[in-house]
UniProtKB/TrEMBL annotation:
One GO MF term: helicase activity
Name this polypeptide is given: DEAD/DEAH box helicase
Organism lineage: Bacteria, Pseudomonadati, Bacteroidota, Flavobacteriia, Flavobacteriales
Annotated SUPFAM superfamilies: P-loop containing nucleoside triphosphate hydrolases
Swiss-Prot/TrEMBL keywords: ATP-binding, Helicase, Hydrolase, Nucleotide-binding
Classification via PROSITE patterns: HELICASE_ATP_BIND_1, HELICASE_CTER
InterPro entries from the UniProt entry: DEAD/DEAH_box_helicase_dom, Helicase_ATP-bd, Helicase_C-like, P-loop_NTPase, RNA-DNA_Helicase
Every Helicase C-terminal domain range: 277-476
Residue intervals passing through the bilayer: none
Residue ranges constituting the Helicase ATP-binding domain according to the UniProt record: 92-231
Segments forming a coiled coil: none
Keyword Transport listed: no
Species in which this protein is naturally found: Cellulophaga baltica
C-alpha cells in the first residue's frame, strides 16, 4: 500500500462529501500502519480528525491543531477520561441538554461510552437501564460498578431496596417488579430497543413495552439504543423522541469474503464442501472467530465437525477449563471436548456463569480461539472478533431465512475499535438482499388488561381504552372492583397475557374445589406435588408439551421433583437420576431455566388469584421462591449472574466460610462479605482448584471499583 497515494484518495472522497468511503479507506490505512508498525504521520492524523475518528489520533505525532481536537473531545467516563469521536460527542451534547433520543448506530459505535459520560457529567439520582438478557445485565453491571459503585448503589435484582442514588440494570421482566419502588427516574435507557417490536422478539416485546410505558411515565428523559434501524414507524412509545440515524458512522471496516459462491452440487456435496471451507478458514486465519450456526442442531453439526478435525490444544488455561468442566458437568459433554480444541459454545441456555467464563476466555490471548453461537452472541454480550463466519443463513431456530437487519447485527460483531480495524466476514451461505429496516412497534392487546386507562390515556387510542374498560368490567365481576383495582396498582401479575389471567381467575371462581391442596407445594415431599404441577402446567398446554418448551409434561414434572436436590447434589449426580427420563445435560440447562422463570411466574399468578378468590389461608410463596432460584439458596443463584458458579459457592458453604442458608443474606451484603474475606484468602484454601482461582479472579474483577 502506498500511504501517500491512499491519503490522496481519502482526501478526494472528503472533498466530494463522500465521508463514509473516506472513513472506510482511512480505517484500512490505519490497519496497514498497525500491521506494519508504522508511526502515524501528521497527514494521517489530520485525516483521522477530518473523518471524526478522534480517538484514533496519535497525539505525539499530530500537529498542534489536531492535538487540540484530541484533548477537547475528552470527557470523564467514570474515573478516567477518554476521547469521544465526533458522533459520540454530538449525541452526548444532546442528552446533556435533556433531549429524548432514540439512536440507531453500528455495533462499533461505542454507545456505552455515551451513557458513562452522561452519568459522570449530569450526576443523576436514578438511572434505569433495561437490557434484553441476564448476560448483558452482568456485563453492564461490571462496567458501571468499576466506575460508579462508590457513588451509586448498582441494583440488578428485585429483592434489594434502593438507596438515595441508584443505577438499576434489569432485563425487562425484572424491571416490572421495581415500578412501584421508584418514584422518579432521571433517565430511562433501553438497550436493543428493537426488541419492543413483536417482529423481532415475540415473547419478550409485551414485557418490554409494559416497562417502557410504566417506567416512561416516571422518567424525565429517555434514551433508546439499537443497531441497524433506518427509520421508526409511528407509535406511541417513541412519539416524543428524536430519532438519530448514525448508521453511516463506523469505527471499523468490514471486509466480506463469499466462499459460498464456490460451493456447488447437491445438498450432501454442498454440506461436505461447506465443512471443508470452514476448516480451511479456521486453519488459515488463526485469529479469533465467531461462527454463527443459527440453531441447536447446526451447533451440534459444527461441534462434531470441529471435535473430529481440530487437534487438542496445549494451552494450560484450556486444559484447566476442560478438567474443571469434566469434574463439574461431565466428561461426555460436547463442550468439554470442544474446549480442549479451543472452541466454545454460546446458545443462551447454558448456566450464566459458564457463558460468562467462555466470553472471558475468548478475550484471552491464550484462551478460546472460536465460539459457535446462535443469535445469543448478538443479544447477550458485547463481544467481537476479527472473523465472523456465517455457517447458516437462517434465524435462530433454523426455519426462516436471515433478514437484512439480523444479518447486519451478526456481522457487526466483526472488528473492534483499537483491536481489529478490519473485521473479516466469511459467508458460507448466501446473505439476504440488502435492505433498510423500519422499526414498527404495534401495541399488543395482550398487555391492555395490565394498564389503567385513566393513567395511560395519553398513550392509548379510543379502541384500546374501550378494550381496557371491557376487560376491567369482566375482572370486576370475578374479583370485585376494589380487589382488582388494588392488584392493578400493585403491578403484581407476572404474565404478559391479560386474557390468560382472566380465564384462570374465571376457572378458579367457578371450580374452587379444583385448587384444594395447593398448599402441598410447600411440602418437603416432592411426591405430593404431582397433581398440582400437572394441573398448573396444563393451563398452558402448548408451552410445556410438544410446543414451546419441547418436553412432555411427565418429564417436566419429574425434572422439577429431582431439581429439589440442586444444592445438595452435584450436576453429574443429578444427571444420573434424570437419565431414566431421557433428560441429558442440554435439556437440564433448558428445563432449569424454564422452571426458574416460567413455572415460578405461572405459580405466582395462580397464588395471587387463589388468595383473592378462594381465600383459604393458603400461600405458596415459599415454593415460588424456591423454584425461582432453581432450588438453590437465593444468593447462590444470583451470584451465578455475577460469574460465580454454584460449585464454588457450595465449597465455601460446606467449609464454613459463608453460610448461604442464612436468611439475612442478600446479594449486596454477600458482596461485602466477599470483600472482607478477600480474594487472596479465598484462593488460598486447599479445596479451591486451579481453574476455581481463575474464576474467582474474574468474579472479584466484577465487584471491584477502579483505583481512580
Amino acid at each position: 500500500m502506498e500511504i501517500f497515494d491512499t491519503c490522496h484518495i481519502i482526501n478526494e472522497y472528503l472533498i466530494g462529501n463522500k465521508e463514509v468511503q473516506a472513513r472506510n479507506e482511512l480505517i484500512k490505512l490505519l490497519d496497514y500502519h498497525e500491521r506494519n508498525e508504522i508511526e502515524y504521520s501528521q497527514l494521517v492524523n489530520h485525516l483521522i480528525r477530518e473523518t471524526g475518528l478522534y480517538p484514533y489520533l496519535k497525539a505525539d505525532t499530530a500537529n498542534w491543531e489536531d492535538r487540540f481536537v484530541y484533548e477537547i473531545f475528552k470527557v470523564d467516563i467514570g474515573g478516567k477520561k477518554a476521547t469521544l469521536h465526533r458522533e459520540q460527542s454530538s449525541l452526548l451534547k444532546r442528552l446533556v441538554n435533556g433531549e429524548n433520543i432514540a439512536v440507531s448506530a453500528p455495533t462499533s459505535f461505542g454507545k456505552s461510552f455515551v451513557i458513562d459520560a452522561f452519568i459522570s457529567i449530569k450526576n443523576p439520582n436514578n438511572v434505569v437501564i433495561i437490557v434484553p438478557t441476564i448476560a448483558l445485565t452482568d456485563e453492564t453491571r461490571r462496567r458501571l460498578y468499576k466506575k460508579f459503585a462508590q457513588r451509586y448503589k448498582i441494583i440488578t435484582t428485585t429483592e434489594v431496596e434502593p438507596a438515595d442514588r441508584n443505577i438499576f440494570i434489569f432485563p425487562q421482566e425484572r424491571a416490572m417488579n421495581y415500578v412501584n419502588k421508584i418514584d422518579s427516574i432521571d433517565i430511562l435507557i433501553i438497550d436493543e430497543f428493537y426488541k419492543a417490536s413483536s417482529f423481532y422478539d415475540k415473547s419478550r416485546s409485551p414485557s418490554l413495552l409494559k416497562a417502557i410505558i410504566k417506567l416512561g411515565l416516571k422518567s424525565k428523559q429517555k434514551y433508546f439504543l439499537a443497531p441497524n434501524i433506518t427509520s421508526i414507524g409511528d407509535n406511541i412509545f417513541t412519539q416524543d423522541m428524536i430519532f438519530e440515524d448514525k448508521l453511516g458512522f463506523s469505527t471499523v471496516y468490514l471486509e466480506r469474503f463469499e466462499p459460498y459462491k464456490e460451493i456447488e452440487g447437491d445438498k450432501i456435496e454442498k454440506e461436505l464442501q461447506k465443512s471443508e471451507v470452514l476448516l480451511k478458514i479456521l486453519a488459515e486465519t488463526k485469529t479469533k472467530s465467531l461462527i454463527y450456526a443459527a440453531s441447536y442442531p447446526q451447533i451440534d453439526k459444527v461441534s462434531n465437525l470441529l471435535n473430529e478435525n481440530l487437534s487438542i490444544s496445549d494451552k494450560p488455561l484450556l486444559i484447566e477449563f476442560a478438567n474443571w468442566l469434566t469434574k463439574n458437568y461431565g466428561a461426555n459433554w460436547k463442550l468439554t471436548n470442544l474446549v480442549k480444541r479451543g472452541v466454545g459454545i454460546h446458545n443462551g441456555q447454558l448456566h450464566r456463569s459458564i457463558s460468562q467464563i467462555q466470553v472471558k476466555l475468548f478475550e484471552e490471548q491464550e484462551g478460546l480461539s472460536n465460539i459457535i453461537s446462535t443469535s445469543s452472541i448478538i443479544e447477550g454480550v458485547n463481544t467481537s472478533a476479527e472473523n465472523v463466519i456465517i455457517w447458516r443463513n437462517r434465524k435462530s431456530g433454523g426455519n426462516s431465512l436471515l433478514d437484512s437487519f439480523t444479518y447486519k447485527n451478526i456481522i457487526g460483531r466483526g472488528g473492534r475499535m483499537f483491536k481489529y480495524f478490519i473485521g473479516k466476514i466469511y459467508l458460507l451461505e448466501p446473505p439476504p438482499p440488502e435492505g433498510t429496516t423500519q422499526l414498527d412497534i404495534p401495541f399488543p392487546d395482550t398487555i391492555l388488561g395490565d394498564l389503567d386507562e385513566n393513567i395511560y390515556s395519553s398513550s392509548l387510542d379510543s379502541e384500546q381504552i374501550a378494550k381496557i374498560v371491557t376487560f376491567k368490567n369482566e375482572m370486576y365481576d370475578i374479583l370485585g372492583k376494589e380487589t382488582f383495582d388494588r392488584l392493578l396498582k400493585e403491578n403484581i401479575f407476572q404474565s404478559n397475557n391479560s386474557e390468560f389471567i382472566k380465564e384462570t381467575a374465571r376457572q378458579m371462581k367457578s371450580n374452587p374445589e379444583d385448587w384444594n391442596g395447593l398448599s402441598y407445594l410447600n411440602s418437603n415431599e416432592p411426591e405430593s406435588w404431582d397433581r398440582l404441577l400437572w394441573q398448573i402446567i396444563s393451563l398452558q398446554p402448548g408451552e410445556w408439551g410438544d410446543g414451546r418448551y419441547g418436553i412432555q409434561h411427565k418429564k417436566f414434572v419429574e425434572f422439577v421433583k429431582i431439581l429439589v436436590e440442586n444444592w445438595g447434589s452435584t450436576i453429574p449426580e443429578l444427571l444420573d437420576k434424570l437419565d431414566q427420563f431421557d433428560i441429558d445435560i442440554e435439556q437440564f440447562f433448558k428445563l432449569e431455566r424454564t422452571a426458574a422463570f416460567n413455572l415460578s411466574s405461572l405459580i405466582s399468578d395462580i397464588n395471587i388469584l387463589q388468595k383473592e378468590i378462594i381465600d383459604n389461608g393458603t400461600d405458596v410463596a415459599p415454593f415460588i421462591s424456591r423454584v425461582s432460584h432453581a432450588f438453590l439458596p437465593s444468593v447462590v443463584y444470583q451470584l451465578e449472574e455475577y460469574g460465580m458458579p454454584r460449585m464454588i459457592s457450595r465449597k465455601l458453604h460446606q467449609n464454613g466460610i459463608i453460610n448461604f442458608l442464612d436468611e439475612n443474606l442478600n446479594i449486596h451484603n454477600t458482596i461485602e462479605i466477599f470483600h472482607k474475606i478477600g480474594k487472596k484468602t479465598i484462593k488460598s484454601y486447599d479445596y479451591i482448584d486451579t481453574f476455581d482461582k481463575y474464576i474467582i479472579d474474574y468474579f472479584y474483577d466484577g465487584i471491584t471499583t477502579n483505583p481512580e
